[in-house]
């Protein structure tokens, strides 16, 4: 599964024999997966299955789910109360046999109150509700597919930006590695120039002491470990992006590590050129982290 964003929108409208269903799904960033449902009366029983389906497709994000339903136009159905009809026929048969009444007609029987009843309750309604719920859930599943696709499309765009930022971080790391200001000889010459400026050009300088101080400064200013960790973090982040799936939390952790190494690089720097690289790193790392906040 490719990297996905946590933001997306989907709307599905479907006309079925059970009615017209319109699902609208909106997703924004979130620490975990949070669903907010707005279902019309009579559809509350769908909530557990909706949450199960969403959890199977989405890992993070605040998702608003709204359902709008229009019931189909249906003619009222009727059923015959056969028990009552049998009793009426038995009674009328006795009256006819005694000569007290004429043989009843069908329309006359059906006109008797209670013989015909509307078929809107009981088993018929239960079957209809079950079919309606199944149709609504099927429509929701398709809306969920559309939302996941939208999130993946945006995720692909974010992944491209993240790869660009990683390439820039790798390039800046290489620049810091190759910066001549890091070399012990360069540190020694800067120290010599500073001491000469303070003491005057005619003052005799103790070369041995200068070399010792330069070595101490070089040790304190050594950023080899920071550069090694930056390269390792770049490689780890690239693998996470290429691997896909819900990697937002791990990328966020790496962005914090990037920021930590950039800060250390700046604090250890003893040259303006290295400081400039460290500051540029901080800018790119901030941009990287901002994009990571959108990743699932």
UniProtKB/TrEMBL annotation:
<feature type="domain" description="Endoribonuclease YicC-like C-terminal">
    <location>
        <begin position="182"/>
        <end position="296"/>
    </location>
</feature>
<dbReference type="InterPro" id="IPR013527">
    <property type="entry name" value="YicC-like_N"/>
</dbReference>
<dbReference type="Pfam" id="PF08340">
    <property type="entry name" value="YicC-like_C"/>
</dbReference>
<dbReference type="GO" id="GO:0004521">
    <property type="term" value="F:RNA endonuclease activity"/>
</dbReference>
<keyword id="KW-0378">Hydrolase</keyword>
<dbReference type="GO" id="GO:0016787">
    <property type="term" value="F:hydrolase activity"/>
</dbReference>
<feature type="domain" description="Endoribonuclease YicC-like N-terminal">
    <location>
        <begin position="4"/>
        <end position="159"/>
    </location>
</feature>
<comment type="similarity">
    <text>Belongs to the YicC/YloC family.</text>
</comment>
<dbReference type="InterPro" id="IPR005229">
    <property type="entry name" value="YicC/YloC-like"/>
</dbReference>
<dbReference type="InterPro" id="IPR013551">
    <property type="entry name" value="YicC-like_C"/>
</dbReference>
<keyword id="KW-0540">Nuclease</keyword>
<keyword id="KW-0255">Endonuclease</keyword>
<dbReference type="Pfam" id="PF03755">
    <property type="entry name" value="YicC-like_N"/>
</dbReference>
<protein>
    <submittedName>
        <fullName>YicC family protein</fullName>
    </submittedName>
</protein>
């Amino acid at each position: 599964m490719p990297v996905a964003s946590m933001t997306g929108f989907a709307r599905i409208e479907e006309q079925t024999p059970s009615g017209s269903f319109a699902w609208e799904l909106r997703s924004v960033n979130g620490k975990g997966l949070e669903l907010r449902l707005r279902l019309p009366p009579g559809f509350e029983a769908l909530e557990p299955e909706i949450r199960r389906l969403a959890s199977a497709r989405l890992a993070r994000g605040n998702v608003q789910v709204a359902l709008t339903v229009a019931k189909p136009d249906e003619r009222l159905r009727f059923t015959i109360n056969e028990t009552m009809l049998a009793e009426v026929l038995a009674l009328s048969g006795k009256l006819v046999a005694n000569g007290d009444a004429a043989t009843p007609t069908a329309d006359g029987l059906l006109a008797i109150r209670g013989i015909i009843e509307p078929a809107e309750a009981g088993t018929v309604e239960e079957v209809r509700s079950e079919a309606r719920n199944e149709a609504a859930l099927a429509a929701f599943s398709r809306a969920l597919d559309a939302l996941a696709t939208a999130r993946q499309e945006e995720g692909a765009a974010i992944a491209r930006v993240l790869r660009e930022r990683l390439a820039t971080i790798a390039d800046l790391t290489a620049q810091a590695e190759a910066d001549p200001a890091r070399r012990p000889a360069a540190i020694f010459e800067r120290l010599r120039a500073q001491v000469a400026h303070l003491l005057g050009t005619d003052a005799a300088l103790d070369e041995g002491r200068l070399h010792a101080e330069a070595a101490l400064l070089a040790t304190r200013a050594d950023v080899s470990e920071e550069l090694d960790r930056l390269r390792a973090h770049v490689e780890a982040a690239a693998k996470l992006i290429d691997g896909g799936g819900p990697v937002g939390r791990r990328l966020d952790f790496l962005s914090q590590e990037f920021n930590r190494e950039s800060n250390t690089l700046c604090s250890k720097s003893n040259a303006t050129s290295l400081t400039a690289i460290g500051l540029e790193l901080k800018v790119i790392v901030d941009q990287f982290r901002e994009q990571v906040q959108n990743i699932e």
